[in-house]
Design a protein that fits this description.
By secondary structure, the protein is of the alpha/beta class. Helix content is 41%, strand content 18%. The chain has a five-stranded mixed β-sheet. The protein is globular, with a radius of gyration of 16 Å. The N and C termini lie far apart (58 Å).
Length: 164
């Protein structure tokens, strides 16, 4: 076991959130915020459902956690996300003072915690987040592949050329 049992437990909870997104035909990304070994915020992608480009799993989980503690500062909290956060979400993690980020797989197209950028750890802001990756990477990758394969197959059906 590379990570602690607790990290696997909380990442599994994030994957369960990602599965909710998948069931709603959203990109399957889930997140949970943890304080003192207790989940205080949950979220999954709801961009399509809410027609809101900011309705990412991390944003929803951060808002839920802040409401739970009654403060925007989450400096005693960790977040578990099934995909590397984008620039927007990493900015929110930095602004909320999250102390630790754990994510499953890197995002080579939008990732801001090691793929394209490393905003969480680069030291250019007044806060730095400890970042860990690779927890349940295969499971997260499988959910993402399932979603995008289904999307690709649906678009083939919609846009297939007429036959004579």
């Amino acid at each position: 076991m590379i990570f602690s049992e607790e990290k696997y437990h909380f990442m599994f909870a994030a994957l369960q959130e990602a599965e909710k997104a998948l069931e709603e035909n959203e990109v399957p990304i889930g997140a949970v915020v943890v304080k003192e070994n207790k989940i205080i915020g949950r979220g999954y992608n709801q961009v399509e459902r809410l027609k809101d480009a900011t309705a990412h799993a991390e944003m929803i989980a951060i808002t839920a956690a802040a409401n739970h503690v009654g403060n925007w500062r989450l400096s005693e909290c960790s977040i578990y996300v099934s995909l590397e956060p984008c620039v927007m979400c990493t900015g929110a993690l930095l602004s909320s003072r999250i102390k630790e980020l754990n994510f499953s797989v890197f995002d080579p197209k939008f990732g801001a915690c090691g793929s394209i950028y490393n905003l969480a750890e680069d030291g250019k802001t007044n806060h730095k987040i400890n970042v860990y990756s690779g927890i349940y990477a295969e499971e997260s990758k499988k959910l993402l592949e399932e979603f995008f394969n289904k999307l690709k197959n649906q678009s083939k059906l919609k846009f297939s050329p007429p036959t004579a």
